[in-house]
Design brief:
heterotrimer; A: 450 residues; alpha+beta; five-stranded antiparallel beta sheet; 12 strands; B: 367 residues; GMP Synthetase, Chain A, domain 3; 35% helix; transport (chain C); transmembrane helix (chain C)
């Protein structure tokens, strides 16, 4: 530990553009701060004007406030200044005065997770604001937070939040240890953090549920889960999370429960449609013509008759086109994105059929499975499902129906092996009975909730 | 674990690319047989003629059908020969199989068994017979019919809904053939004139075609076999009594069938209860009155009883038992007695009575 | 999760019953109606119930071992009295039979698959994928296997609903009023039917990982199998005529072939493909049993090595047979051996247990005498 002093601090920062250092009363008080991180109004009010008016005569009394923190360590002082504190050197003592203030994005509606009913606010990039959004919803002293920092250079603050008595302390401690053990230079977003925390880092499936909606975060907290906030990131992470969490939308709970259940079942149907529909088309057209009913056979033959490629190539081609369209649309401004949709969906689709490159039934199949993939509320999960789908298509082209089932086996066995903080990823099915199935996969009627 | 999964997945992909796609049945390269016809041909060298009809798509994307014929020693011999006539790969379909009259008279079981052995041909494939040459029916162009095979398929589908006995497929044929207490039947088509028409039903003794039942006999047979839901019946009353000459059409028939067997002296009685509504009546009685309705019921009962007994006598004569009396008899006997009995002989000498009870539930919308 | 965490966790009885159902040799069900008709004659489906009672006695033996052995694994029980080297030939025999049977079941499935749906594809592709899935499961350990099959079996079960489509053709008259007439060899038939319940004997090795009240899941799982076999075979006897069943190699396949949904015809393809999961369960559990036995013989070797060794053996074995008849001959022979193991091993272990108990009692008596 090195004793903090004014010169060393100035030397550490060098000639930063936003570094301000001033002295008062013949260098009796000297302050150093970064004006980009400090709220100028409270700085003036709390520090500058008292200093000018010499009201710090009784130093001991004046600094005995929570605003002031006495620090001796040089490193702590540097860290404090970087966190938006003003460092005041008064004789032998060094104080950090917390007057942070910087530009932030206003709380706005979440673009990624929209709901029809329910609250519309979402997290932004500032930890303080995010904490206030949570704190505002849980008015209980049992809400506990552990502050950690990650990244050798970035020193990003990470908060672990849980409700004491509801959350399992073993998991809280485990999470704490694991976050502390992370060795990286910097993290820029919580999605970066969770990939460092994952127990199965090569799995295509996201293992931590992330959300930018405070209402979901709070409902997870009430359910005994632990959430993690990362400074500079609007996404909070949630653990332990299971596969089925990714298929939940807050809208399910804000609607009548019968409708919520129906919508949820629809989502699982969508999951299967996305995974299997195109693969099934490929397998039937390649190997199992006898499964096509007599009435459908003719139209299928007619649509395939002019296509020069085998169904497998044809399907793969179209699926890749859809992925291109989706990726192009995602990165473009909304207005141009619409054009992409029209060009891709209508013009290319129509032209491809007329040119005889694809069959129109396949176009229907591929679009339906693409639409189904967007029904999955979690973007991360939807992306992994779309990736896994290609494995299904390849295997269907190779082995037909049994190939699809082999792949299904591979995926399910893989999923069953996944864990998130020692709790199984597919929790609802593995340890217990239908009762917990009902709770996890389907929504309970509200009158049965306590 | 995770790295292993990656290995698994990459290995899957590798095998695919190394192996390439194996032999496939891409549907545009297939000729899925919509209907196949098997006939007995002249000459002992190539006893079987096979005709297949399959849909093709022309360059413009229009539908067409193609019929090919070949003679050979066996079913699959002819299949190979037919295959040489086209560039497409011919595969068995789920459509219809037609048998020529001569082949059916000689016995179908060898043909059916070799069809059964082929996993491409489904067990739902429809069976029917053709009066005369079955291949001709597929080849002939009819002005009102675009696709002969489709026509027969849909015809049988519809007829099967209306009269259960006309619902015949490979499964039913084999089931009744293998069952020792019932004989199979197949619908018989004829292609004389400008269209394909249903002639009636051919009954079998074992796998050999023995008698043709006319259309009205087929309808009665339908009610003798088992319970019918939502059936129909056309009755022309002129043939029973000279004084009465009218047409009667019954619909929404729900029938209840009960077979009573006396094993001591081998007598059987079939009790049929019909509940029906009148759709058409060209007679003079006012059937909205209960008295006349009762009278009409009596007339129908009498008609059905006499015709049924006539029909049964005809079946007994040809030793064919499509009604399944054998099943009922068998289930009333001991195993030893049933096995030691010459059922065919007993059947043709058995006294089989029919008792019909008719109840008219309504007489349609108007008086 | 670390491997250590798995060991603490005990398997839930419900999971276990589903696992035990899924590991029973389901492939036999595809021939079961014909086998019962052929060996037992008319109404042969009833034989399934009689054999079920026999199997229950077998299970009772296993449950008794668990009770009397107080949860010790059978290896611990045996080796407390008998030196390991005496048992090694028996262990090796068990391992060989189990690996062989697993491979033959897998291969028979693949043969049927090829006959019906993939006449042109080489069998080795299918064997590769079975082996890969097996590897994925075996490396995960028994907990992973159990959890995975609880889910995978959920895909197999709905296929039973297709039977509803067949009810309209079902007729009680076809059952005939004769019982067990026209059968050929009751003993051989019993062995064949018994082989449908095989697989459950591997549960003898589950003792260290199960809950205390697990024995009920043995009976539940087995009853589940009975239910499925019975419903399918019963359906078959009412759907087909007796001689038709006799003349059909795979009557259940034909049964499902008859189903037709409005957007799919011939659902037997789907049924049989989904059935791969059940075959996988039987295969994997036998491999797992072999792995555990091998680990007991030579405990110091890494488990991963045994898994690879077993899978490689199974892979090679599965590629040997050249025809369906060949496979059937071998799988019949091996399943007879497996039945022998299923009965002899529990009886033997019970014998050992009794000797131990007698000895304990004698020790105690001499203690009293002192």
């Amino acid at each position: 530990m090195t004793e903090a002093n004014y010169e060393k601090t100035l030397a550490e920062f060098g000639d930063s553009f936003d570094l301000v250092h001033r002295s008062f009363h013949q260098d009796k008080f000297r302050i150093v701060y970064l004006n980009s991180l400090v709220d100028s109004q409270s700085l003036e009010w709390e520090i500058l004007s008292p200093l000018r008016e010499m009201s710090f005569n009784h130093l001991e009394q004046a600094t005995d406030q929570s605003l002031f923190k006495r620090i001796n360590d040089q490193e702590e002082v540097i860290k404090g200044i970087l966190d938006g504190n003003v460092a005041m050197f008064a004789g032998a003592y060094t104080y950090l005065i917390n007057v942070p203030g910087f530009e932030e994005r206003a709380i706005s509606q979440s673009e990624r997770e929209t709901v029809i009913n329910g609250p519309h606010d979402s997290f932004n990039e500032v930890l303080q604001t995010n904490v206030s959004l949570i704190r505002r919803r849980i008015r209980s002293p049992r809400l506990k937070m552990i502050s950690l920092s990650v990244g050798d250079i970035s020193k990003t603050r990470v908060l672990v939040i849980y409700i004491e008595g509801t959350a399992k302390m073993s998991i809280v401690n485990q999470l704490k240890e694991r976050i502390q053990a992370i060795k990286v230079d910097s993290i820029t977003d919580s999605n970066f953090l969770i990939q460092k925390l994952d127990e199965h880092q090569n799995s295509p499936f996201p293992q931590f549920y992330t959300t930018e909606r405070p209402d979901i975060a709070v409902s997870k907290l009430y359910a005994g889960k632990i959430i993690g906030l990362v400074d500079d990131s609007p996404n909070i992470i949630c653990t332990p999370s299971s596969f089925f969490d990714f298929f939940e939308s807050p809208d399910d709970l804000y609607q009548r429960w019968t409708i919520g259940v129906a919508v949820k079942l629809l989502r699982y149907l969508a999951l299967f449609v996305t995974l299997i529909l195109t693969a099934f088309y490929v397998s039937i057209c390649t190997y199992h013509y006898e499964m096509i009913p007599q009435s459908l056979l003719q139209s299928l033959m007619q649509s395939r008759s002019r296509v020069p490629f085998p169904p497998f190539i044809e399907a793969l081609f179209l699926e890749i086109v859809i992925e291109l369209l989706r990726e192009a649309g995602a990165r473009l401004p909304t207005k141009i994105g619409q054009t992409i949709g029209i060009v891709g969906g209508i013009v290319i689709g129509q032209a491809a059929v007329q040119a005889g490159i694809t069959s129109n039934i396949l176009i229907i199949v591929v679009s339906v499975s693409a639409i189904a993939s967007f029904i999955v509320p979690s973007y991360g999960m939807s992306a992994s499902i779309r990736l896994v789908r290609f494995l299904f298509i390849i295997m269907a082209g190779f082995l037909g129906n049994i190939g699809i089932f082999f792949t299904l086996g591979i995926v399910i066995i893989h999923l069953m092996g996944l864990t998130n903080f020692s709790s199984p990823y597919i929790k609802a099915i593995s340890p217990a009975f239908f009762k917990s199935w009902m709770d996890n996969i389907i929504i309970k009627p509200f009158y049965r909730n306590k | 674990m995770q790295s292993k999964v990656i290995i698994v997945i990459t290995m899957c992909c590798l095998t695919v690319f190394v192996a390439g796609c194996g032999e496939s049945n891409a549907i545009e390269k297939l000729a899925v047989v919509e209907a196949g016809a098997y006939d007995l041909s002249e000459g002992s060298e190539n006893p079987i003629t096979t005709t297949v009809l399959f849909p093709t798509v022309t360059k413009e994307g229009k539908f067409d059908t193609m019929a090919l014929t070949a003679k050979g020693k066996s079913i699959h011999d002819t299949f190979l020969k037919v295959q040489n006539l086209t560039s497409l790969k011919i595969v068995g379909g789920q459509g219809t199989i037609l048998f020529g009259e001569d082949l059916a008279k000689k016995g179908l079981i060898n043909v059916v068994k070799s069809l059964r052995r082929d996993p491409e041909i489904g067990i739902r494939v429809k069976f029917a017979m053709v009066e005369g040459n079955a291949g001709k029916l597929l080849e002939k162009k009819f002005p009102s019919i675009e696709d002969n095979a489709e026509f027969i398929y849909l015809f049988l589908e519809r007829a099967g809904w209306q009269d259960k006995v006309l619902f015949t497929n490979q499964y039913r044929f084999l089931r009744d053939y293998y069952d020792d207490g019932i004989d199979p039947v197949l619908p018989v088509f004829s292609y004389e004139g400008d269209t394909i028409g249903l002639k009636g039903v051919g009954t079998f003794k074992g796998d050999r075609y023995v008698t043709l039942l006319t259309f009205s006999e087929t309808q009665i047979l339908n009610y003798l076999i088992g319970n019918i839901k939502n059936g129909r019946l056309m009755i022309a009353m002129n043939d029973l009594e000279p004084g009465q000459n009218y047409q009667l059409s019954l619909s929404n028939i729900n029938s209840d069938n009960d077979k009573i067997i006396n094993t001591k002296n081998m007598q059987a009685e079939i009790k049929v209860k019909l509940k029906a509504s009148v759709l058409e009546y060209t007679g003079t009685m006012d059937i909205s009155k209960e008295k006349y309705q009762k009278q009409l019921e009596g007339q129908i009962e009498k008609y059905l009883t006499t015709n049924s007994e006539k029909l049964i006598a005809k079946l007994q004569q040809s030793q064919s038992d499509p009604i399944g009396i054998g099943k009922v008899v068998r289930n009333h006997l001991t195993y030893e007695r049933w096995k030691s009995m010459n059922w065919n002989k007993t059947y043709s000498n058995m006294s089989i009575k029919v008792q019909v009870k008719v109840e008219l539930t309504n007489s349609g919308k108007s008086i | 999760m670390k491997a250590g965490d798995h060991l603490k966790e005990r398997l839930h009885p419900f999971q276990l019953s589903i696992l035990l159902y899924s590991i029973q040799n389901g492939l036999v069900v595809y021939t079961l109606p014909r086998v019962t008709a052929q060996y037992f004659g008319t109404n042969g489906w009833l034989s399934i119930i009689f054999i079920f009672i026999l199997v229950n006695i077998n299970i009772l033996l296993i449950a008794t071992i668990y009770k009397l052995g107080k949860g010790r694994s059978i290896f611990e029980i045996i080796e407390a009295t008998i030196p390991k080297w005496v048992m090694i030939p028996i262990y090796l025999f068990i391992i060989c039979v189990w690996i062989g049977l697993a491979s033959m079941i897998m291969r028979e499935y693949i043969f049927i698959m090829k006959i019906f749906f993939y006449p042109a594809l080489p069998a080795v592709y299918f064997v590769i994928f079975f082996t890969l899935l097996g590897f994925q499961l075996l490396t995960g350990g028994i907990h992973h296997i159990t959890k995975a099959f609880v889910v995978l079996i959920c895909f197999v079960m709905p296929m039973l609903a297709l039977l509803l489509y067949l009810i309209s053709e079902f007729e009680f008259d076809r059952f005939t009023s004769f019982y067990f007439k026209g059968g050929t060899d009751y003993f051989e038939g019993s062995l064949r039917v018994y082989s449908a319940y095989l697989g459950i004997e591997v549960s003898m090795l589950l003792f260290p990982v199960v809950d205390k009240k697990w024995t009920k899941s043995l009976f539940i799982g087995n009853f589940f199998s009975l239910f499925i076999y019975l419903i399918v075979t019963f359906m078959c006897f009412g759907f087909f005529s007796f001689d038709q069943v006799l003349n059909d190699l795979y009557p259940i396949m034909t049964l499902f072939e008859y189903t037709e949904v409005s957007f799919l015809s011939r659902a037997e393809n789907l049924c049989f493909c989904v059935f791969a999961f059940k075959i996988l369960a039987t295969t994997v559990i036998y491999y797992w049993g072999a792995q555990k036995t091998l680990e007991n013989i030579a405990g110091k070797v890494k488990p991963g090595l045994w898994i690879i060794l077993i899978l490689a053996t199974g892979f090679v074995l599965a590629l040997i047979p050249g025809s369906v008849a060949h496979v059937e001959k071998w799988s019949n022979w091996l399943s007879n051996c497996a039945i022998l193991i299923a009965w002899a091993l529990p009886i033997f272990v019970l014998g050992v247990l009794f000797i131990q108990m007698l000895r304990n009692q004698m020790l105690r008596e001499t203690d009293y005498a002192k």
